[in-house]
Design brief:
binds zinc ion; five-stranded mixed β-sheet; alpha/beta; disordered C terminus; eight-stranded mixed β-sheet
């Protein structure tokens, strides 16, 4: 056999090895280099400082929301993203107005109060009535109607703090559905103990919904210390009278946008790995944790790959989601727009749980893809990340895509203390640890790079019916 023939065979063998499905040693080496250089990058912190300083609060439908969209377009372009564009959608416009709550009798005291997002306004003079304490949302449903008619309902359950935010899901129903449940029993207004863990005298806002078949009543939250105070006063057994003023308005519709930018793939530019955070925030703070951090982390991660790495095969798409807070409007609009393009969506992950370090990597893929997930895990592990479960949520804005069968990665952040800050005036830049932000960027770099580079797929239509078997 000639030398030339051996060469051919050897190079053929090497190509065959190279073309093996999944990820090879070169891919992992490239991801490792990118990971380590990302740990020294200040880009995410600079983006977050810019967003919180130059835009600040950016509630959906507000003038600042529009400025944030323009900020997103400009930053994606200047970071070198291609195909930078916006995607519009409509939603009901809610505006906050003057608001307050105070105890009038038996011992007059002011309460730290904020209206819930979506609440109707009260009359300018407010609602004045006796307050009735209810232990929880579940207890409200079992409450005797006569006890609440003409009163202000006060749901007093306190959410628990935890690393993974588990306490939130259990408690938040008081905020989202409490007003209608109270109205059903004849209550005139709803006051809840904030869905949050802060012991500061700040109230936590957040979205609520009305049952369209029931009377709509004004709704707000008081701080945890004020909920304690109110409970102490009620314990004395005398009627406690409070006044609640909600100056909010719900009128007409507004338009906002997702902001989208691509780092085009070298081989399959029309296949997407989607990462991002939501661009809107509540109006009380500057949205540093919720979700400026997610925006900054994912923009910086993709930009880092674009600037320093070999270009992966698939496109890394960054989506700065619009109006997550009031009902995942941007996430729904994107899923709707991709109906005929679903299978081009390889895998996704949203960062929307603050700026704490990532401690766990979960996945949601077809079982055959777990070999790739294990390899991604190898490169994540030195960042202090452990392997999680196989039902990664992918984040709120990718929820509609997951529901359609898209694979998800879950880079889970340590959320201890996150609900001290969530939806309060304290959601500001000083709460962000720059080093934790770098760890997040490094993890997203690894996830996005290797997901876009693999020769395998993660599966789509993860619950589709099997193709009919030929007989
Ligand atoms: Zn959020």
């Amino acid at each position: 056999m000639s030398r030339g023939l051996w060469g051919l065979i050897l190079s053929g063998l090497s190509m065959a090895l190279h073309a093996a499905p999944g990820l090879d040693a070169d891919d992992l080496a490239a991801a490792t280099l990118l990971r380590d250089s990302a740990l020294n990058s200040d880009v995410a912190y600079e983006l977050l400082e810019s967003l919180t300083t130059e835009i600040g609060p950016r509630m959906a439908g507000s003038p600042n929301d529009a400025r944030a969209v323009a900020w997103g377009v400009e930053k994606l372009q200047s970071l070198g993203f291609k195909n930078v564009h916006t995607q519009s959608f409509e939603f009901p416009l809610w505006r906050r107005g003057p608001e307050s709550a105070e105890i009038l009798a038996p011992f007059p005291q002011k309460l730290a109060f904020t209206a819930l997002g979506g609440s109707i306004g009260s009359k300018p003079a407010g609602v004045t009535a006796e307050v009735v304490e209810v232990a929880s949302f579940a207890a409200l449903n079992d409450f005797p109607e006569a006890a609440l008619r003409g009163k202000i309902a006060f749901i007093n359950n306190r959410m628990a703090d935890s690393r993974n935010g588990a306490g939130y899901g259990a408690a938040v129903v008081a905020r989202t559905q409490g007003a209608s449940a109270a109205a059903k029993k004849g209550a005139l207004a709803l006051v809840i103990r904030s869905i949050g863990t802060s012991n500061d005298r700040v109230a936590h806002t957040g979205i609520m919904n009305y049952d369209p078949t029931l009377t709509r009543i004004p709704a707000g939250a008081i701080s945890n210390p004020d909920a304690d105070l109110l409970a102490h006063m009620l314990k004395r057994g005398e009627p406690v009278k409070i006044r609640v003023i909600v100056g909010a308005k719900l009128s007409g519709t507004a338009t906002s946008h997702n902001v989208i930018g691509d780092l085009p793939g070298s081989e399959f530019p029309d296949q997407y790995v989607v990462i991002g955070g939501h661009l809107d925030s509540w109006d009380l703070g500057t949205g540093a944790l919720d979700d400026g951090a997610g925006v900054a982390i994912t923009m910086a991660a993709a930009a880092h790959i674009g600037k320093h790495g070999p270009r992966p095969r698939r496109t890394i798409r960054v989506i700065l989601w619009g109006n997550e807070e009031q009902g995942i409007w941007g996430g729904k609009a994107y899923a709707e727009s991709q109906k005929n393009n679903l299978r081009q969506h390889w895998i996704g992950a949203e960062s929307d749980f603050g700026a704490g370090k990532i401690y766990r990597f979960s996945s949601f893929t077809k079982p055959e893809a777990l070999a790739d997930i294990d390899k991604i895990m190898q490169v994540l592990a030195p960042l202090g990340i452990e392997r999680g479960g196989t039902n990664a949520s992918g984040g709120p804005d990718l929820g509609p895509m997951k529901a359609l069968g898209m694979a998800m990665g879950g880079l889970e952040q340590d959320g201890t203390g996150y609900f001290d800050i969530h939806h309060t005036p304290n959601d500001t830049l000083d709460k962000v640890d720059p080093e934790a932000l770098q760890q997040n960027v490094a993890a997203y770099v690894v996830f996005a790079y290797l997901s876009a580079q693999t020769r395998s797929d993660f599966g789509f239509g993860l619950t589709p019916p099997a193709a009919p078997v030929a007989r």
